[in-house]
Design brief:
alpha+beta; seven-stranded mixed β-sheet; four-stranded antiparallel β-sheet; globular; NHEJ_LigD; ligase; ATP-dependent DNA ligase; LigD_pol_dom
């Protein structure tokens, strides 16, 4: 029987605490839970109002992986859920709004993925996202070059963008937007991806076609679609090591010279949060959100 822990007045079952999830480093289930508890103050604002999809890997990254979008069986009745629209009809998804629900969700061993809209207004996007994915032999170093171009281009439209690592091999760019549907944001993002390809044809591709991607950075604009999700800031990823999708400064992006310069494990991120807080905090300033041209 899983031990029961009280978290802010809620009883949370935490199981298999000694289980090694990341064999390359010996990182255990207990360490995963400790990581999420430690960064909860900066993670929760990025999850709180957004329906969460879980990429679960209960036996570690080398085991079975599966996406869970609907409320999982056995979810405690005190975990907040929300009905969300889908093409096949409405469904119910989890909202991770506080530390108890975060610890319950983390016990599932999962990456956290969120939409670019909040549950109270699923018809309107409040985030713009670009997923910069390098096709080998391109690396995150090349993603940084593309990111800097996109930053300046977005600024010309009055939109301030922020960066985080994907926690894998690429880079994510996030911006606050207002007054637009997901469809409109997708159209705008695609137009900028096409523009980036025209400006840097030797480096950028805006289409997902695999044969076009070796040695180039795929600027994935499609994650702005209402049905799509993106790995949340501070989520652990199902990689060989406990890598994190970590916010980074533009100085770090500009100074990146090797892939290891922008690779952060759980312990690295805990230290960064302690020293710098949430580098993505400006995203919560709704007055600073940009309007699409």
């Amino acid at each position: 029987m899983a031990p029961i822990t009280e978290v802010e007045g809620r009883r949370v079952a935490l199981s298999n605490l000694e289980k090694v999830l990341y064999p390359a480093t010996g990182f255990t289930k207990a360490e995963l839970l400790h990581y999420y508890a430690t960064v909860a103050g900066v993670l929760l604002p990025h999850l709180r109002d957004r329906p969460v999809s879980f990429l679960r890997y209960p036996d570690g990254p080398d085991g079975q992986r599966f996406f869970t979008k609907n409320v999982p069986p056995g979810t405690p009745d005190w975990v907040t859920t929300a009905e969300v629209p889908r093409s096949e009809g409405p469904s119910r998804m989890v909202l991770v709004r506080d530390l108890p629900s975060l610890m319950w969700a983390a016990n599932l061993v999962a990456e956290f993925h969120t939409h670019q809209w909040v549950a109270v207004d699923p018809e309107r996007a409040d985030r713009l996202v670009f997923d910069l994915d390098p096709g080998p032999p391109a690396t995150v170093v090349h993603c940084c070059e593309v990111a800097l171009w996109l930053r300046e281009r977005l600024r010309r439209d009055g939109i301030e963008v922020y960066a985080k690592t994907s926690g894998a091999k690429g880079l994510h760019l996030l911006a606050g937007v207002r007054g637009s549907s997901s469809e409109r944001v997708s159209e705008y993002a695609k137009a900028l991806a096409v523009e980036a390809e025209r400006a840097m044809p030797e480096l950028v591709v805006h289409r997902m076609t695999r044969s076009l991607r070796p040695g180039k950075v795929f600027v994935d604009w499609s994650q702005n679609a209402a049905r799509k999700t993106t790995a949340a800031p501070y989520t652990l990823r199902a990689r060989a090591e406990p890598a994190v999708s970590a916010p980074v400064t533009w100085e770090e992006v500009a100074g990146c010279r090797a892939p290891g310069d922008l690779a952060f494990l759980a312990a690295d991120v805990v230290a960064r949060v302690r020293d710098s807080g949430d580098l993505l905090a400006p995203l919560f300033d709704r007055g600073a959100a940009g309007a699409l041209p």
